[in-house]
Amino acid sequence: MNKHVDYLIIGGGIAGLMMAYQLEKNGLSFLLIDEGKNSSSSKVAAGMFNPISGKRMTVNWRADELLETLHASFVDFEKLLNKNYLVQADILQAFGNVKESNDFFVQLEKAQFNKYIEIDPAKQDALNDEFGSFGVKGSGWVKTSEWIADYQAYLLKNNKLIYRTTNWDELKRKGEQWLWREKVFNKVVSCEGFQVNQNPYFDWLPFKLCKGQVLHILCKGLNPHVILKKGVYLVHQFEDVYKVGATYEWDFEDEQANETGQEMLLQKLSKLLVLPFEVVHREAGIRPTTRDRAAILGEHPHLKNLYCFNGLGTKGMLQAPFLSAHLLAHIETKSDLLKEVNIQRFKEFYTNSHPLETV
Ligand SMILES: Cc1cc2nc3c(=O)[nH]c(=O)nc-3n(C[C@H](O)[C@H](O)[C@H](O)COP(=O)(O)OP(=O)(O)OC[C@H]3O[C@@H](n4cnc5c(N)ncnc54)[C@H](O)[C@@H]3O)c2cc1C
Question: Which residues lie across from 298 on neighbouring strands?
Fold first, then answer.
């Protein structure tokens, strides 16, 4: 007999795992399929959350709500997995030049920006702040790779995760439901990150992928409780090891970390850090960034019960808890999707080039 399951999630990065969390929280059954690759955007991410965009000196989209949902979800994960993954830490950001400093003081007039700013933060000797610096409150990071490993292990133990590559040809249509290997699913959510370009049902969406590389450095004398930022950021990992990131590469040939990426990061790091250090590791991932830099949520234009949750871009950790809850509310209660993230905004890109097999 076919077994009915509420949801099938394809992809177990930040997007797929946050979707799984929302389903568990709402008592819905699901199966998550992930390839189990060693490296992915989610696994290399620094997991930083920052209410402001320090380059443009603006407050991030819906920053208050995103932060609130992020914190609440990691309180739940702490209870579930018995570990604290979310580290609250201020950012100490040095201006790269006089223009950045001028832009900053203009923004400071705005209450929404101002409330996150510490104008006179405690100095850190390790930071070269020749043009001045400021502090950002409400920021921090999630120990992302640790959380992914632990939550995936929990799901595996509870028979809610399978490690394998989904071949979309194996998914058949059964009325308005989906059939995959003897199991019937009411709904399917596609969370494959940049590999959505291999998904025949969503490959028409206008993604603009962005490779990112990070270094791990060994450096003694840094304060592990503060994130330093100036062109690149430094986030504590363990003992005297820090993550330095990241590059933003719009033209790239593969997913691998390379010498060129390392050089780009080292050049920027030399302007930030006044302490000696040693590079111990480098890694890379591809961010699922979109044309308008906003996430893509919602149902396929023509296939009922097939959903997209993707396009988290450079801010996966900050956005995924809020947006996964938002998508689930839309699916289950028919509430409207926010227009900025609604898949409908790209409907003119849709081409129906992949006929679907039904059983
Ligand atoms: C260097 C770098 C640093 C970053 N730093 C930060 C940061 O500090 N803060 C932040 O918020 N964001 C950061 N990001 C962005 C963040 O990593 C992404 O927004 C996020 O990881 C996207 O998650 P995702 O689940 O959509 O995609 P992915 O991480 O790519 O996950 C998709 C998963 O689906 C699996 N998959 C794909 N296709 C299939 C298939 N057919 N069958 C089975 N499994 C499949 C993949 O193997 C993968 O596990 C960073 C990204 C990079 C590259």
Answer: 308
Task: Kindly report, residue by residue over 220-270, the tens digit of the pLDDT.
Answer: 999 999 999 999 999 999 999 999 999 999 999 999 999 999 999 999 999
Q: Decide whether any atom of ligand 1 lies within 6 Å of the 246 Cβ.
A: yes
In a domain, 328, yes or no: yes
Dihedral Cα 278, 143, 47, 113, nearest 10 deg: -110
Each residue of 70-89: pLDDT tens digit? 999 999 999 999 999 999 99
**CATH for 310:** 3.50.50.60
Rounded distance between C-alpha atoms, residue 140 and residue 145, angstroms: 15
Residues spanned by the domain of 246: 89-140+210-287
Q: Token pair of 108, please?
A: 């400071």
Check whether residue 311 and residue 215 sit in a common domain.
Answer: no
Report the alpha-carbon distance of residue 8 to residue 243 in Å, rounded.
34
- Structure-block tokens of residue 7: 């949801």
Which CATH number does the domain housing residue 116 bear? 3.30.9.10
Mutation probe of ligand 1 site: the residue of 8, 314, 318 with most atoms within 8 A of C-beta: 314
End-to-end CA distance of the chain: 15
Q: Whose CA is nearest to atom 3 of ligand 1?
A: 45
| Residues 150, 199 within the same domain | yes
